[in-house]
């Protein structure tokens, strides 16, 4: 091999090495998930999905940044633990339904921008009717970091089997407070939990004493089953659970939901 050809080949190899180094780990394997993450469907296809931030039925009223597909992505450990909880609930005639799982940091940033825009209150009548939007940060409803971005936190509820059909949300339809009686608020096909999902209100606190009857039974069943599977509940949100021994306790990821 001539010296000139050897130099040219060496330069080409260096360029390829540089490109490989600059490729983000999440895309290095043809657009797959980062190591340690899985799509929940692949671990347990029986768990239902209603990914609210992929659509417009959420407290912002728009699809949220980073939600390219309506997927539940979790760390493998969290997905496996959730499968354990699902198996216990199926034996009792229920199934889990997830509203949100891993949440990209860019989605959290979207929430923060929305919260600072005090003029945008399109979804207030349903999701935060009794909360002044200027108080969302101070009252802890919105923050600049979320445990969801670490990959082992999810928002989840119960559906009684056989599951009833659920109509789609129609943007612009009249909104009903999330704490209204179940027959009046948005017709989710879940069991009664006392409030709807993402309800910014003290009634969403898991142990709020005002929640009684079937809603109390359902909250306790959900919490007890997930605790037994290795999760802990956030006291302010009956739907919010985090794996106790999460594998990335200090890492906030930002890959978009949409990779296969």
Explain what you see.
The protein has helices at residues 3-22, 40-43, 76-90, 105-116, 124-127, 213-228, and strands at 37-39, 48-49, 73-75, 94-100, 153-160, 231-233, 240-243. It is α+β, with helices and mostly antiparallel strands and 260 residues long. Strands 2-4-5-7-6 form a five-stranded mixed sheet, with helices on one face. A hairpin with a 6-residue loop joins strand 6 and strand 7.
List keywords for this structure.
globular, alpha+beta, 260 residues, two-stranded antiparallel sheet, five-stranded mixed sheet, 7 strands
Strand and helix map with partners:
Blueprint: H1 3-22, E1 37-39, H2 40-43, E2 48-49, E3 73-75, H3 76-90, E4 94-100, H4 105-116, H5 124-127, E5 153-160, H6 213-228, E6 231-233, E7 240-243
Parallel strand pairs: 2-4
Antiparallel strand pairs: 1-3, 4-5, 5-7, 6-7
Structural class: alpha+beta
Report how far apart the termini are.
Answer: 43 Å
Question: What's the arrangement of strands in the largest beta sheet?
Answer: 2-4-5-7-6
Largest sheet: 5 strands, mixed
Evaluate the radius of gyration: 21 Å
DSSP helical segment count: 6
- What fraction, in percent, of the residue positions are helical? 25-40%
Strand content: 5-15%
What's the total count of β strands? 7
- Following the backbone from N to C, one meets helices and strands in this order, namely HEHEEHEHHEHEE
Low-confidence stretches: 1-30
Gross geometry: globular
Overall mean pLDDT: 90
């Amino acid at each position: 091999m001539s010296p000139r050809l050897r130099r040219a080949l060496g330069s080409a190899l260096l360029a390829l090495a540089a490109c490989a180094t600059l490729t983000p780990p999440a895309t290095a394997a043809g657009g797959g998930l980062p190591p340690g993450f899985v799509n929940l469907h692949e671990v347990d296809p029986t768990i239902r999905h209603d990914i609210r931030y992929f659509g417009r039925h959420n407290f912002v009223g728009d699809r949220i940044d980073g939600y390219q597909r309506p997927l539940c992505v979790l760390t493998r450990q969290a997905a496996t633990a959730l499968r354990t909880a699902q198996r216990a609930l199926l034996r009792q005639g229920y199934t889990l339904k997830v509203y949100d799982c891993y949440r990209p940091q860019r989605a959290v940033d979207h929430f923060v921008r929305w919260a600072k825009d005090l003029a945008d209150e399109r979804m207030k009548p349903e999701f935060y009717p009794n909360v002044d939007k200027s108080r969302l940060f101070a009252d802890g409803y919105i923050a600049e970091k979320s445990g969801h971005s670490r990959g082992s936190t999810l928002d989840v509820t119960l559906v009684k089997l056989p599951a009833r059909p659920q109509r789609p949300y129609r943007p612009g339809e009249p909104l009903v407070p999330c704490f209204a009686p179940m027959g009046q608020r948005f017709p989710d096909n879940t069991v009664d939990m006392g409030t709807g999902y993402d309800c910014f209100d003290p009634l969403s606190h898991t142990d709020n004493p005002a929640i009684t009857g079937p809603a109390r039974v359902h909250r306790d069943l959900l919490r007890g089953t997930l605790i037994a599977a290795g999760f802990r509940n956030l006291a302010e949100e009956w739907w919010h659970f985090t794996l106790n021994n999460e594998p990335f306790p200090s890492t906030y990821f930002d890959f978009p939901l949409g990779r296969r």
